[in-house]
Amino acid sequence: MFLRSWRCHPKLILTEETLGLTQKESQKVDIARDFISRVDHILKNHSGTGMKILKFVIRDCYNVNTCHLNSWLQKAITQGIEEVSLFLPRKSSKDCNFPCSILLDGRGNSIRYLHLTYCAFRPTVGFDCLRSLTKLHLYQVCITGDELGCLISDCFALEELDLCVCRELICLKIPFWLERLSCLSVCDCNALQVIESTAPNLSTFDFYGEPVQLVLGESSKVKNLKVDFSSEPNFLSYAITNLPSIVPHLETLTVSSTCERVSTPMVPDKFLHVKHLNIYLGGGDDGAVTPTYDYLSLASFLDACPVLERFILSVNQGGMQHDSVFGDASSHLRQIPVCKHGGLKKVQINGFCSAKSIVELTCHILKNATSLEGLTLDCIFGAEAVSDPVRCSARKSGKCMSKSSRMVLEAHRALSVVKRYIVHRIPSTVKLNVGEPCIRCHAIDVKLL
User: Are the C-beta atoms of 157 and 132 separated by less than 8 Å?
Assistant: First the structure.
């Protein structure tokens, strides 16, 4: 009875764990032979009836050849299957072609989720085998823009498209008839030059990689955007200047930059609907945010978002090179013309430091955010448990993430900044949360200049 039910089992998750091979980690030849043998045995005895979910995780050391893989897929992908996940070895990406023919005769039209890695996928004109597909994830898959167009042209149910390290993509076009597509993610497709979408209900778009031309159409309804042109200097200036017209209906905007050399400009165009703004600034080659960048200029982003409710600034740097508020330049804090941010309620600065311009930005917010309810200043970037003086208590290891002594020293300086320059400016209606250095992992003797 058990054997009969197993032969019709709806889920086949074929990994070294499920096949009981992890205990032979040091015996690579044996584990490779056993993997192939056990998968052969399982698929030989499985009827194919009732199959819903298929997942292969094949490691480099298994030496699975294309003939083996194609025969397994031919046996396992049957009519009625709904999910196919194929995690192939890294070395297979050059010579492994996903056999499109196995999706013919109606076997592909029931698939709702398809996840492929390290292979080539070469659909041709007329490929209409994935009519029920709702989620498509391609990681390190060799596929051109035209081939991807053939793949998704008849995927009328597609809701989510995720493309990562697909190096043959040069132009990505999303047609208007993909009415259900709501989420698009593109990461490190570094040959890509243009992303053009006329999908009418695309609402969430994440992009990371080399600069591309974004064409989202006049009717774009993108409301959530994360974007990082990885090698673009002064990307914040590009974002505030260009994005209001490209994505006019944004409600949540996340922008990242690791090379800001000039101040963020004031612009006439506005993000009229942005309520949540997240800005990430990372250190460059020397681990520090460029000292020429003026944090106070971020007030222009606040000005460009008239209905902003939440602002998160994250500064990840190995060393602070800006003029310190403790130095000679601290004789007075600069103020810019009054610009009320009446809707701003929550502000969080992760990686708060002693840079004079970041202190000036914080003071500007306290003065002009008339509806502010909470301000969080975390002196340790990437730490947990802001309200706990033992920061590592939230981590299973019982120890904080490793930080350089220079960064820990700067965190202690930042804590002194909060006490000296910020606390007395906090209105009674605003709750201040301060993420201090961990009293156990970041305890050092600090002598402020």
Answer: yes
Q: Which amino acid is at 324?
A: S
Query: Whole-angstrom Cα distance, residue 364 to residue 288?
Result: 24
Give residue 31's region: left, alpha or beta (phi > 0; psi -120 to 50). alpha
Helix (H, G, I), strand (E, B) or coil at 12: strand
d(CA 432, CA 426): 7
What is the maximum alpha-carbon separation in the chain? 84
Distances from the Cα of 67 to the Cα of 23, 36, 96, 104, angstroms:
27, 12, 10, 19
pLDDT confidence of residue 326: 86
For 155-211, give the DSSP string. -TT--EEEEES-TT-SEEEE-TT-TT--EEEEES-TT--EEEE--TT--EEEEEES-
Round to the nearest angstrom and report the end-to-end CA distance of the chain.
78
CA distance 39 to 72: 8
Amino acid (1-letter code) at residue 270: K
Alpha-carbon distance of 385 to 83, in angstroms, equals 38
**How does DSSP classify residue 395?**
S
* pLDDT tens-place string over residues 407-422: 888 889 999 999 999 9
Residue 21 and residue 250: Cα distance in Å, rounded? 49
Give the pLDDT of residue 48.
67
Answer whether 0.85 is exceeded by the pTM: yes
